[in-house]
Every structure is written in C-alpha cells, then in structure tokens.
Amino acid sequence: MKQTACGPDSTDRAILNALQEGFPLVHRPFAAAAKALGISESDLIRRLERMQAARLITRFGPFYDAAAMGGAFCLCAMEVPPERFEEVAEQVNAFPEVAHNYARDHRLDMWFVLATETAAGITTTADAIEAQTGLVVLRFPKLREFYIGFRVAA
Question: Is residue 106 among the annotated active site residues?
C-alpha cells in the first residue's frame, strides 16, 4: 500500500500494530523496534513524527497506572455553553493534570480525565478548573477497573 496524504501506508500500519503490543525497554528502544519492523531507526522516528503531525495518531508514549504509583485518575464532565467551548477547552487543557479532553454531543459536552500524584490532587485540580472557568466539574471516580485489552488494528 502506497502512502497518501490522507492515510498511512503499509509500513505505517505495521508500526501502529506492532507498537500497540509494547515498546522495547532497552538502551535504544527506537532502534530495537525499527529492527523488528525491518526499517531504520531514523525512518521509524520520522514516520511517528509525521503521523502525529498529520493527526493520524494523537500521541505516542506510555500509559502509566497512576493508582499503582500512589496517584489517582478521575473522569470528569462539564456542561459548557457552545459560545465558550473553545475558551474553556484552552483553560482546561492548560492544566498538566488533564490527560484527555473530548467534545461530546450531549448536555455534558466536555469530558476529560484528570491524573494526579495523589487522590487529593483530583479535588484540588477540579476545584481550580471550576474557579477558573466558573463552571461545575462533575467527577466520576473509578470504582472498579476492567481490563478490556483494547487494541485498534491499523
């Protein structure tokens, strides 16, 4: 499959599929991952940068289990007036504790995840977002974890 301006080629797809399964924890992880894919380290890095710039992927990096390290996660939602959505999104996204932020077609139209070093950090950060935006942050803490083995075939 040849790479086009609007989508990944077969090598990009192989990269996406392989790296969802893990990333080598070695001195030169990109070199090890590239070797397993049959490409050069520089090609792998270039392709990941290009896919991110083209928004084919939104991020490349690890997911940490904050709770296992003593921290906390919390799913949050806000009802944001449409005329303020972009302004509020910028305010919310400026907090380093915000891990994800999504617009939804619902009365609660902004959903985001807070990840903090301590459980108390959730309250502190959500309260700060409320103070800055003047809007209520609804908090949905995780009560039980389910492992679903989420993987997307590229």
Answer: no
